[in-house]
């Protein structure tokens, strides 16, 4: 609709038929104000659209000299998320496709976060306070004298560019409200499985379990359920053996490479130099004769190596065989390196985009100081894109 069409022509016609000069003055005055109004509208429109991001940024801009960095991100599935968080008491605002929504004071997995529409309930001043609170708490993680402003691009998740932004977003995933509702969660030793259809685990089921450290409680529980269970741990002083009628132990590890001379980093479990036999999941499935078989449950606790391994699982296209996947994610003080965090964040989002959605998270106590940054979480996924017609 053209703005010019409306009142201008309506007032033009009667005036032009009248030759009175005083009326002409009135006409010029009217035109002058019309131009002013049109200019006002045009300039106003140029400032639009005032999106939610812009709205937030505007608020943050003027809030205080201590406002240094704003971290936000847009993830395509299942909801568009915008994060703006405090450390312990996380405060999130996210754009869900239609409304900017806020989760406030979400303080752990046992608390149900309250979602409130931001625009209607939170006043500018309150939002500014939340933002300042977030920035103050995050200040220990970066140089508080440096000012950085990020441009918002809702079409890209590449607004995450620094280690601490990536760490914040990974932390968000660890603490986010559960995305997939599993009504029947069963404890299996030291892990959980989802027993909701269609994910129900029942014989003939195949289970891969990586990282045992002498605790076979999960493996034995899955074995009792009637599953074929393959357990792996190269760090144990236990040789490869048959553990039961349908359960096996291998002194091998999962990795992103195939080698018999993998030298692991020293940690809590590896006190001296060792050489391990490690395989990719794709190679293990081949060697065990499970090529193209469904893995009902894949469990992994591999002390920081999971990031590279998940990358490899994605690259080698084996996740399509997996129905449930649970693993402990680790961010140790120096492993993986902070310079890799942005990539780790991308790995996590890639996994989610492949259909792996969390139904239960168990975040461990964390340390959010740069010098000894530490964050870990047990994450339980179901594969919502599993192709039920291709695999029985
Ligand atoms: C979170 O906020 C509540 C109330 O604002 C406070 O009582 C609680 O101690 C906070 N939790 C943490 C971990 O700071
Ligand atoms: C969501 O936003 C739309 C317009 O963008 C508005 O009409 C609607 O009332 C909002 N809903 C809530 C629950 O705030
Ligand atoms: C987004 O949030 C608004 C307000 O909370 C809600 O009414 C709406 O249904 C949500 N939309 C989606 C797609 O979740
Ligand atoms: C930040 O600036 C203040 C004042 O200029 C200075 O005292 C302080 O040492 C600086 N902090 C860092 C981490 O550089
Ligand atoms: C995002 O993508 C849509 C559709 O391709 C486009 O219309 C829009 O301008 C893009 N937004 C930005 C900020 O690039
Ligand atoms: C293993 O199989 C043998 C022979 O079929 C049977 O006697 C035994 O009870 C089985 N053991 C277990 C633990 O299922
Ligand atoms: C699922 O597998 C079947 C049989 O292999 C195939 O025809 C179908 O296209 C697959 N569906 C999807 C969504 O990939």
Compose a concise summary of this entry:
The chain is 30% helix and 22% strand. The chain has helices at residues 7-16, 21-47, 52-61, 118-121, 124-138, 163-175, 217-224, 281-287, 306-315, 341-353, and strands at residues 90-95, 100-106, 114-117, 185-188, 191-194, 206-210, 228-232, 241-244, 247-250, 253-254, 259-262, 276-279, 295-300, 322-331, 356-363, 375-383.
Word description of this protein:
34% of the residues are buried. With 392 residues, the protein is of the alpha/beta class. The strands form four sheets. Strands 8-9-7-6-13-14-16-15 form an eight-stranded mixed beta sheet, with helices on both faces. Helix 6 runs parallel beside helix 10 and helix 9 packs across helix 10. It is elongated. It has ten helices and 16 strands. The structure holds 2-acetamido-2-deoxy-beta-D-glucopyranose (7 copies).
Helix content: 25-40%
Report how far apart the termini are: 57 Å
Strand content: 15-25%
- Give the strand order, joined by hyphens, for the main sheet: 8-9-7-6-13-14-16-15
Number of helices: 10
List keywords for this structure.
392 residues, alpha/beta, eight-stranded mixed β-sheet, 30% helix, binds 2-acetamido-2-deoxy-beta-D-glucopyranose
Topology overview:
Elements: H1 7-16, H2 21-47, H3 52-61, E1 90-95, E2 100-106, E3 114-117, H4 118-121, H5 124-138, H6 163-175, E4 185-188, E5 191-194, E6 206-210, H7 217-224, E7 228-232, E8 241-244, E9 247-250, E10 253-254, E11 259-262, E12 276-279, H8 281-287, E13 295-300, H9 306-315, E14 322-331, H10 341-353, E15 356-363, E16 375-383
Parallel strand pairs: 6-7, 6-13, 7-9, 10-12, 13-14
Antiparallel strand pairs: 1-2, 2-3, 4-5, 8-9, 11-12, 14-16, 15-16
Helix pairs in contact: 1-2, 6-10, 9-10
This protein binds 2-acetamido-2-deoxy-beta-D-glucopyranose (NAG) (7 copies).
Residues 98-99, 117, 120 line the site of one 2-acetamido-2-deoxy-beta-D-glucopyranose.
Pfam families: Methyltransf_22
Transmembrane segments: 26-45
Domain Methyltransferase: 152-359
